Amino acid sequence: TRLLSSSSGQGLLHESAKVRARGRDLLGAECGPPDDQSFDLHEIARRTETSLAHVLAASTAIFCHRLTGEQDLMVGLPVSARNGSTRRVPGMVSNVLPLRLSLRASMAVSDVIHQASSEIRESLKHQRYQIVDLRRDIGRTGDTRALFGVSANIMRFDYDLDFAGHRAIAHNLSLGPVDDLSIAFYAHSRDRLRIDFDANPAFHSADNVADRQKRFLTLLTSLTPDAPVGTLEIVSAAERRRLLEEWKATARAVPTGSLGEVLAAQA
Questions:
Q1: Which residues, 6 or more positions from 255, have their beta carbon under 8 angstroms from its beta carbon?
Q2: What is the pLDDT of residue 18?
């Protein structure tokens, strides 16, 4: 479901994240990085000879690694489940592929992007292998647990909407319930990127969703191809100062003299 609104204000994508209930079964937060950061992501794709989709998928895996420390990561990747000829046939078709990546803190961001690019190209050969068949083939037909904790839904569609000279922006209202956490990327143009976080309220609170999104945007601002994954920031400068300086400011004056003298004085 989509909602059209006027694009006269540029702040629609760049205001602070707004967390809201998208019905009983979904929490959502939406916002976007500033225009210059969106351009940086395209520049990273150019420098690594990949695409924006590969950079975003790799960024999602890096984010999960920085949050959890896990080195063997599985990210869900929604795909169109269409080949060249069926792309022109109207109808609802989609699928979710597993994107498995191996990360280490010492790896360069470019290495993760290239790994994601290679895995995505290989996985797309099997995009019509439905997830329901995957569940059956691995023996989890009756298992209701999610196959993927986090999914990266990258939607690079034509959002250039014009009604007799009046520009409009498409806002996604909901992609439907999610099993755990879904990060949706809307590439409206080269310099306009919107990022939505949708979460299952059974596992996440509104504050948790907003915090996850804020940390993800912080990571994007420190993303460079040559940077080691373990050095990428997921905390703000103010939070780092609070953790490393304010909370550790526990110095206290201690009495002079030996332990025996202190005990005798106390006695």
A1: 262, 265
A2: 52
